[in-house]
Protein: YcjX family protein
Organism: Paracoccus jeotgali
Amino acid sequence: MGITDFTEGVLRGVGLGEPVIRIGVTGLSRAGKTVFITSLVANLMDRGRMGALRAAADGSIKAAWLQPQPDDTVPRFELERHLAALTGPDPHWPEGTRQISELRLSLRVQPRGMLRGLRGPQVVHLDIVDYPGEWLLDLRLMERSFDTWSKEVLERMTGRPGAAAFQSALQDLDLSAPLDEATARNLAELYTAHLQESRLAGLSDLTPGRFLLPGEMAGSPALTFAPLPPAPRKSPLHREFARRYEAYKSRIVKPFFRDHFARIDRQVVLIDVLGAIHAGPQAVNDLRRAMADILSAFNPGRTGWLAQMLGLRRVERILFAATKADHLHHTQHPRLTRIATALLREARDRADFAGARTEALAIASLRATTETTIEQNGNELPAVRGRLMDGRLAAFYPGELPADPAMLLNAAQQGQQAWLDGDFEAMQFRPAADTAREGHGPPHIRLDRAAEFLIGDRL
């Protein structure tokens, strides 16, 4: 065996001799990351519903199968368990992401056109990385000092759920007193309770993210700090909280992104736009600000801190996907897409400037409803029908999204407490039963278009 053959054999044995597309799936809580990955993989394996993915439609994808992932130290994404939850006899939504996980799907692809007769089938590996959206929020901390972060958090805290108890504790605090661990722990617990209540209220800009999902870090000093007001003279508590804040960034945040995102080729950003609209103007503005900060740190260009630290090549494509499109009649999908595009304008412009291709889509990773019309006050309204979480079958008209996204964004940025022209309602539907068809993955809306944008050029 020649040295070239030996080298190619070794590279192929470790998965480096065949093309690998590493896809990062990110998004804030309740955006549907687990469902997106489960449905995407299932539909790539059984491609009957993937007509907009050209390589599936023209038969270029000859086979798809799961393989062991390249990183043995990362938990495997539990595809089989999640798929059983979504499509089993008693369909239900799987548990949300609580830790990082990874999955490798391999595709055997026959080149199209003139290359068909010159090359045999090629194997392309998709490495899909999933991680809690709460951890994604920590990206914005990397270029902020403890004082800057504290100032920003405290300025927007008033009126938010759970804030009063924490603010009261700050007012009673003697910053000149010696460091007391019980006081530190009480402040951290009150601040964490505020973050948890704010998340339940639909807010997004909640840091540090590990306070919401601490895992094995619960109770550690790195997670025992809270924002503090400025003081002319740094107190012992201030100095210790600032030290713990920096330790949190250097020992938790940086290693996580360094170890898992050094080779991201394509990025999926899932956004629950409908949930934010339902929660009100404050939640919409919170989502806009959070996504802008996230994408500025995850900048695919040359200036992002992550790129500087890792020497990253550019992320080639970024998909912004507004999820849960099945909660709307298809006539409203263009409006949802326009709102998502406007909501992410700041973040998306930064990515476009860096040279990455971007796309915004309204999708449903798993379609849980069918379309219908209902009559209300003598008018026929475009609605959706599905089974609610309590088991009842219901037809639902959530309200009409505005044709001009500025109607939402202006109200949000002006600090309005409620929509002036009525509310947009949201319902929670269960996965539909009896959707399985031979050779077809789970039903969806535009997941095939999402796949074409993400990987179509490489197939």
